[in-house]
Each structure stands twice: as C-alpha cells, then as structure tokens.
C-alpha cells in the first residue's frame, strides 16, 4: 500500500478548542490538529509533525499587536512515541509575556491505545519569541553592533543546480539496478514527509553515497575518516504554495498568520527529518543491526528574523559523540543569497537513543 502524502495544509493546520483561561501569568489555550499524524512505520509517527504543530499553536497565542516578535528558540523532550493516524491535542501555557519576550510551554497528547477516553502526554516543548529593540528598522540595524556567519564548505560539495530531487534520484538508482524497489518502498513514508519540498542530497555526503543506508556496503570517500569527522549535506526549498491564513474560515481551521511564521513552522518540520538515524548512517550501520533509534530531546535555534522557506537552504549534518546507547547530533542550516555570503539561519542539536539488536541466547537441548 502506498504511503499517504501529507499536504502542506495537513502538516500545519490546527483548530482552537478553547480560548485563553487563567490569570495573565498562566494563560492556557487548547488546540488540536486538523489531520491525523502520518504513519512512518509500525503505527509510530514523525516527531517533526509534533514540533510543527506545537510551534504553530504558539504563534496563535501571541498578542495581535506584537507584530515584531520572532521565533528564536524551540527546545523539547519526547515523553513517548507519537501514535500515527490519531489527532494530536496541543495545550499551550503562557510562561512569560513582556514587550521583548514571549515564552510558551507546549504539551502534546493523544488518546491512549488502550482507552480512547484517556489522553496521554507524549511531547513537551518550550518556545521563545523575541523582539528587536528600536523604534524603526534603521535604529534596529544601528543597534545590531556585530554581524557574522560561519560559511559552509561550498568548494567541497555540489550545488543544487547540478542535482535532482531525492525521489528522482532514488528512481534513477532503481532503474539502473543499483537499489532495489523494495528498499525504496520501505522508506517511502519518510520521503513523503518532505513531498512539499525540493530536496536534493549532495553526492559527497554519506547519506547519498549509501542511498539512505540501503547500500551500506558501498565504498564511501569518507570511510577513512573518524565518525565524528564525517558529514552529509542536502539542499532544500519549499516548492508548494505556502499555507497562510488569508481570512477566517467558517470551519475554524487555523493556518499560519504570516509567511515568516509559516516558514518557521515548515523549517522546524524539515529540520527533524533523519536526525535519529544520522549516527548509524554515518557509522555505516545496516537497518538490520538496529533495534531502536529515536530522538530523546532537541534544541532548534533560529539566528535570523526574516525566514523564507521558499529560498534555497543548505543543511550540514554531523555527530560529535556516541556512547551508552545514546548519541549527539548537530545540524547547521544556511540560506543561499546569490552574490552574497551564505547566512546561518538555524542550528539544531539532538540527543538520540540507538540500541543494537538484542542477542538471543540459544535454548539448551535436553
């Protein structure tokens, strides 16, 4: 059965269940997703879906007059696996609201697999918005007394203009006999998560060289490096119309209020793809060797205010350590600006679980 594609609207759309309650310092709002969460495998869903829904809900709790607030920090913990094909309920609590900052706690819950009347929390997140100081754009620029950005290794990797989308690349691999159709079918649900994106993997990176761990026996030009020095890169831009709330709807569906908000939500969704398998793929570990792999906690930090997911971005993924069945991964995301230096848009860090298959002892014979 073909994996279901999620439309951009399904990724972000939410509905308000209740208005704010409580005192000004502990206001609460309740939302729910308009679509069920996608099924990746064995009834489990994608963590980035929860992140995107939580960030979107937080935007709808900001005061309408606070137009200068921009998302800069998203940190969270996964409390348990998200259930596929179920609605997610999103509870937002106001932690801080000042002229400069807005901080929100997000808790996402779903109905229990044993009792549909019981809601269980499976995700918690803290989100921060910040406003620049200055009465106008000129004063804001003047008060920004330092500005710089580390640059990506562009001389080492292919440009997006030389590459094709990941699905097209996989089709070529299958047609040439390099990759089995069954290998693609097993991962189709993962590729469908980014159906709204033009996503192109650099052939110099480990992911492309091993065709997303379906060909770990292939020789990589990074195989002689320590794992912490191995890298993978991919280009991405959102290619479909951005789902933005242009006017109120009669059915109460909420979409992102602005293009910048929508870009932030979509980038959070994109940045969580593949993070829990970065380490096993860099370490050339086959799928069959892994019993479990999932994200424990994460931090996404945005370093620019005016986000635009429709522009080309370059992501670099790496890991610095792994031990005790856990690993730590890092991502950097740059926006391409023709004729200018690249701008570091976001950085991501995640701690993940990675456990090998349990060795079963043979039963003794009588």
Please outline the helices and strands:
Elements: H1 8-12, E1 14-21, E2 28-33, H2 47-59, E3 70-78, E4 89-97, E5 101-111, E6 119-130, H3 137-143, H4 166-175, H5 181-192, E7 197-201, H6 206-209, E8 232-238, E9 253-254, H7 259-271, H8 278-282, E10 290-302, E11 313-323, E12 326-335, E13 343-356
Antiparallel strand pairs: 1-2, 1-9, 2-4, 3-6, 3-10, 4-5, 5-6, 7-8, 8-11, 10-13, 11-12, 12-13
Helix pairs in contact: 2-7
Keywords: Hydrolase
GO cellular component, one term: peroxisomal matrix
Organism: Meira miltonrushii
Verbal overview:
It is a single chain. The chain has 366 residues and is an alpha+beta fold. The chain has helices at 8-12, 47-59, 137-143, 166-175, 181-192, 206-209, 259-271, 278-282; strands spanning 14-21, 28-33, 70-78, 89-97, 101-111, 119-130, 197-201, 232-238, 253-254, 290-302, 313-323, 326-335, 343-356. The protein has a 13-stranded antiparallel beta sheet. A hairpin with a 6-residue loop joins strand 1 and strand 2 (28-33). The mean pLDDT is 90. InterPro entries: ACOT8-like_C, Acyl-CoA_hotdog, Acyl_CoA_thio, HotDog_dom_sf, TesB_ACOT8-like_N. This is Thioesterase/thiol ester dehydrase-isomerase.
């Amino acid at each position: 059965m073909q994996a279901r594609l999620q439309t951009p609207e399904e990724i972000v759309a939410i509905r308000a269940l209740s208005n704010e309650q409580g005192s000004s310092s502990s206001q609460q709002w309740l939302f729910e997703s308009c679509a069920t969460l996608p099924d990746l495998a064995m009834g489990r869903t994608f963590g980035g879906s929860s992140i995107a829904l939580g960030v979107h809900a937080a935007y709808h709790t900001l005061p309408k007059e606070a137009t200068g607030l921009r998302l800069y920090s998203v940190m969270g913990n996964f409390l348990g696996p998200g259930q596929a094909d179920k609605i997610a309920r999103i509870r937002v609590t106001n932690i801080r609201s000042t002229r400069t900052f807005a901080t929100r706690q997000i808790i996402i819950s779903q109905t229990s697999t044993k009792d549909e009347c019981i809601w269980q929390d499976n995700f918690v997140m803290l989100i921060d918005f910040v406003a620049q100081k200055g009465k106008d754009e000129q004063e804001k620029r003047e008060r920004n007394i330092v500005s710089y950005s580390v640059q990506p290794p562009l001389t080492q990797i292919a440009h997006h203009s030389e590459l094709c989308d990941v699905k097209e690349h996989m089709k070529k691999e299958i047609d040439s006999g390099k990759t089995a159709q069954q290998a693609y079918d097993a991962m189709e649900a993962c590729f469908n998560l980014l159906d709204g994106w033009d996503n192109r993997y650099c052939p110099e990176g480990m992911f492309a060289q091993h065709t997303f761990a379906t060909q770990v026996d292939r020789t990589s030009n990074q195989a002689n490096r320590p794992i912490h020095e191995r890298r993978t890169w991919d280009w991405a831009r959102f290619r479909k119309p951005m789902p933005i709330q242009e006017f109120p709807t009669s059915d109460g569906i909420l979409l992102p209020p602005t293009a910048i908000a929508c870009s932030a939500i979509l980038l959070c969704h994109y940045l969580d793809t593949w993070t829990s398998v970065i380490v096993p793929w860099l370490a050339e570990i086959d799928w069959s060797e892994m019993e479990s792999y999932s994200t424990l906690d994460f931090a996404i930090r945005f370093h620019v205010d005016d986000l635009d997911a429709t522009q080309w971005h370059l992501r670099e993924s790496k890991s610095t350590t792994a031990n005790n069945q856990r690993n730590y991964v890092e991502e950097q995301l740059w926006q391409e600006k023709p004729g200018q230096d690249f701008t570091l848009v976001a950085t991501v860090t995640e701690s993940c679980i990675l456990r090998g298959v349990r060795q079963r002892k043979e039963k003794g014979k009588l």
